[in-house]
Amino acid sequence: MADFHEFYPLRRHNTFGFDARARFAVHVRSEADLTAALADPRADGLPLLVLGGGSNVVLTGDLDALVLLMEIPGYQPEETGDAWLVTAGAGENWNALVNRTIADGMPGLENLALIPGTAGAAPIQNIGAYGVELRERFEGVRAYDRHTGAFVWLDLRACGFGYRDSLFKHAGAGRYIITAVTLSLPKAWQPVLSYGELARELDGRAAPDAATIRDAVVAIRSRKLPDPAQLGNAGSFFKNPLVSAAQRDALLQANPDLVSYAQPDGSYKLAAGWLIDRCGFKGMTDGPVGVYGKQALVLVHHGGGTGAMLLALANRIADAVQARFGVRIEPEPVVL
């Protein structure tokens, strides 16, 4: 029988540090723990929430739900002809996984260093940074299908990845519970240095190895993003909006310093942080919540606030950006 904790405090399980309690919580350290929790009569009729590192959620109040605290460990590399396949338990810390693969001579994840959260959460968001998205290093996931009561394998195509998007946010939401992630790291590794900020950080260094790129990414992120252990945050709060070339050109004409990135389909991704900064929100404080002074894309919790307060601030910011630029920015975290 699963070990259910009633009215369990979740403050340590969300990086904003909001106080909230779960009706029940279970520490899931194996697939057997998972199936036992789901079969327990106490779970009947309750909504289900899976929490890994809690780095991509905004808790706006107590949860009348069963919360599965995903802590399944595991690290298993396998060599194939042209790649390393690395399977990690869903509860593995993502940044520790990045560091371990590099140390073990399997590069490919270095651009994704220091992203908070767990391996199991990475596919849900299709995490990405500095020119690389998870889907480019992805083989598949093992997941429990609540519709069939069986464990299944979902490959790259099945996961339906998009920009900060996946099957697990749409048709698969609430259906699949990821227990392990398998990554595909090519043996014919090539550094990805297309992102301007990363290229500047490396300052033209010839043929940097994966560890050097990882260190550069860590340096950039450490300068721009606060440590959640010191200041509550979930990293970048808003997605960079996608606009047509015509809309981007019109905005560029009115704002010559607009920051944008061309996409393969001809659209443009706008820097949400730049939009927010131009609306005057960078560094502002609104009671116990605010916008980080070094990066306008990051919303922060100074303590004593609520998720509802943070959400109200996020809506004010999105409305201001819409009014000034005609572009709607959307939050990355899941609001609960």
Automatic annotation (TrEMBL):
Gene coding for it: murB
Pathway: Cell wall biogenesis; peptidoglycan biosynthesis
Any GO molecular function: UDP-N-acetylmuramate dehydrogenase activity
Any one Gene Ontology cellular component term annotated for this protein: cytosol
Lineage: Bacteria, Pseudomonadati, Pseudomonadota, Betaproteobacteria, Burkholderiales
Regions that span the bilayer: none
Purpose of the protein: Cell wall formation.
Keyword Disulfide bond set for record: no
Entry's family note: Belongs to the MurB family.
SUPFAM superfamilies tied to this protein: FAD-binding/transporter-associated domain-like, Uridine diphospho-N-Acetylenolpyruvylglucosamine reductase, MurB, C-terminal domain
A biological process term (GO) from this entry: peptidoglycan biosynthetic process
HAMAP family with a match to the protein in the record: MurB
Cofactor: FAD
Record organism: Cupriavidus necator (strain ATCC 17699 / DSM 428 / KCTC 22496 / NCIMB 10442 / H16 / Stanier 337) (Ralstonia eutropha)
Name under which the protein is recorded: UDP-N-acetylenolpyruvoylglucosamine reductase
Active-site residues from the entry: R164, S236 (proton donor), E332
Entry keyword set: Cell cycle, Cell division, Cell shape, Cell wall biogenesis/degradation, Cytoplasm, FAD, Flavoprotein, NADP, Oxidoreductase, Peptidoglycan synthesis
Cellular localization per UniProt: Cytoplasm
Domain FAD-binding PCMH-type: 18-188
EC number(s) from the headed UniProt entry: 1.3.1.98
Reaction equations catalysed: UDP-N-acetyl-alpha-D-muramate + NADP(+) = UDP-N-acetyl-3-O-(1-carboxyvinyl)-alpha-D-glucosamine + NADPH + H(+)
